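#lab-general

N.A. 3:47 PM
ok so I finally got the sequence cleaned up, no stray characters, all 660 residues accounted for. can someone with queue access submit it? mine expired

B.Y. 3:52 PM
send it over

N.A. 3:53 PM
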Amino acid sequence: MPKINVLPKSLAELIAAGEVVERPASVIKELVENSIDAGATSITAEIKNGGISYIRITDNGCGIAREDVRNAFKSHATSKISTAVDLDAIMTLGFRGEALASVAAVSKVEIMTRTADEEIGTRYCIEAGEEILLDDAGCPVGTTIVVRDLFFCTPARMKFLKKDVTEANAVAGVIDRLALSHPEISFRFIREGKQTLMTNGSGELLQCVREIFGKDFSSGLIPAAADTDAVKVSGYISKPHCARPNRNMQFFFINGRLIKTATGSAALSEGYKNSVMVGKFPSCVLNIELLPSAVDVNVHPAKTEVRFSNEKAVFNAIYFACKNALAQDNSRAQYKAKAPVKDFYAQLQKPAEQTTFEKKADFWQHIDMREQKSEPVAVTFVNPGPEVKKETNEPAIVQSVEKKPVSYGASTVTVRNTAPVGYTAKEDDLPDLIPDVLPVTAPASVQAEKPVVKDEPEAKTVQPKTTDALPVEDFTLVGEAFKTYIIVECGGKLMIIDKHAAHERIIYEQLKKDNSERTAQLLLAPVTVTLTKEEYSAIRSNRDLLGKAGFEVEDFGQGMVIVSECPMELDADDVKDVISELAGRFADKKQEVDFEKLDHIYHSVACRSAIKAGDFTSRYEMEQFAKRLLAMPEIRYCPHGRPVLIEMTQRELEKNFGRV
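B.Y. 4:20 PM
back already:
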């Protein structure tokens, strides 16, 4: 049997430090929590090189008496508890007495502190667990701790640290959560000599949320509260239409301590049932108050996991707080109208009655906007009753015809079609038919400011891709069921096609095929996306990868990024959700290699840009889509693994009707 050895103190301290100090963010968390327990109302945290070379925490708390300074750096030395009974009534963030000893064991620590009863402060230096200096110091009431050269005595631990920017973002995330847990404390965060966060410590939680995450996120929150005999819940939850693609913006606090709780997340999801779309998750900043004896915080070294003596009471309190808040919220998702297209018809004479129409582009083929803009169409308009005729030769998808004059009384204008491909013009389409040039002969009120029309050369013919040449077995389009499934009869079989799943897979395959010549569209209004610090760091680390997929993402600071370009297939309204979803995945699955990440980007873009179940599809579009799908026998499953079509033979159908 191997001999049992008693480990020396230095080695035991290194082992203990490994449980508490994993990275600079761990040091920040432990030291700032000590400042909060000391009753500080103002806390400043400063880091350099991601916190690896320099960390400074300054507070105006009660300070440490000179006779207690040495003891503070000993293992299991604490002022929070003294007996076993105290473990059942823990109201402080720290209580084990391991933080300072663990930090001092793997770094160079200098502390300056003074209590209100002392006239002269104390300066104490300790390196790798060994005392270096204890002397007088002039300093204000409170404590300042400086940590230098983290893991200098354990090089093996140093190599597992990430890049400086990644470690700094992790520290920023810790500061954000600590500030949310105590809005009554003013937090200041200095990163590489630049102040990146400042909260005023007013005690207003919503204001603190706004200072940390910005106005866009805070404006989507509503107050939530519940008070039962055992549990009290207060804070804010997101409006249903402000739900996010992941749970990274859910913050739960127990008596001011940040925790991870599956019970809280489940209660929140249940409260939002039938209020948010599938695959979306609400955000929240909720503080749960209950008796210290009803929760055990001593179950994890980082104290982020807890156990409740009565989980049902906690679940019910969060659930009812959520339900009550949603019942009182009368806000609705707001539609932001885009700038209207200039209307030449209204320039000449305001029509007696104007109507609006909704256009729908061909869902299965995306056409370059440059081709779309150059597509002319002949339109005839006769006054006074507006009548529009579009000369077309079906089934061509894009018509290439000469520009012809439009009659308006004595006026003549030449127009260019801006309606979507495959759209048949109606009389109420006129507001979107824009003149290339102004009338030759117009009313006097208009003629003074309108130039004369000149002859223009014939428009260049556009030849887009079509499916007419695809080798496909003859089929008959039966129709569509539930605005979701296209039904086709082909080769003695009945095929039921899930148009969203099939369209998603077609777009996905096209994205992978065109990877080397990716084209992007410039957004008219750049999209700002608010992220957690971990998501923000993940997006920054994968900017080149996003660029390959067609996204132009720029750093906006304070946990926000700006997207100025996106893939041609993606609608601008979906950019924010796609970036949030990708950021969450990148942050959670850091071990994924680049080709897996790029593949998931294509998945997300294809899913968002594909036609949705319930969307209207014309018969012509269904025929062309079925032709395209049947010409691609390799496509049988969507990127998520669901089948794109189901086949039923004639014999199977007849068996069900008792014919065979």
